[in-house]
Design brief:
Oligomer: single chain
Number of helices: 1
Keywords: Signal
Number of domains: 1
Mean pLDDT: 75
Radius of gyration: 17 Å
Structural class: mainly beta
Number of strands: 9
Signal peptide: 1-23
CATH topology: Immunoglobulin-like
Largest sheet: 4 strands, mixed
CATH architecture: Sandwich
Helix content: under 10%
Strand order of the largest sheet: 1-6-4-9
Low-confidence stretches: 1-31
Shape: globular
CATH class: Mainly Beta
Length: 121
């Protein structure tokens, strides 16, 4: 089993917390989650060449987590994302060597930690 640790998501979400009616200055609070680790299982007959993660609320995909690595058919890899996830729910997009994509929608990364995601055809 190969191992990855790749920061694929953007910086922490900052929120301002101060009622408009108060004269006190606003306070910035960083909201982040703990690192998330999971096993990615390629249960297809094709080589997985790219893996992208995106917040459910957007159509934009983050950078390719695999970089120059690939995940051959039937193989598994441990993925750790440690870059202050802003939300719990993300979409996962797998791209294969033949150009086809599979999207696993609305994965709860807060509940997933230590679990697995199966990529199937």
């Amino acid at each position: 089993m190969m191992k990855f640790a790749k920061a694929a998501l953007a910086a922490a979400l900052l929120t301002m917390a101060a009622p408009a009616a108060m004269a006190a200055p606003a306070v910035a609070v960083a909201q982040t989650t703990e690192p998330v680790s999971f096993t990615l299982n390629n249960k297809t007959h094709h080589t997985l060449v790219s893996l992208y993660i995106s917040k459910v609320s957007t159509n934009d995909w983050e950078e390719d987590i695999f970089g120059s690595e690939v995940l051959k058919a039937g193989e598994s890899v441990e993925v750790t994302i440690d870059d202050d996830l802003e939300d719990c729910n993300y979409d996962v997009k797998a791209t294969f060597s033949d150009g086809d994509d599979v999207i696993v929608a609305d994965q709860d990364f807060c509940e997933l930690d230590g679990g697995s995601i199966d990529i199937t055809e």
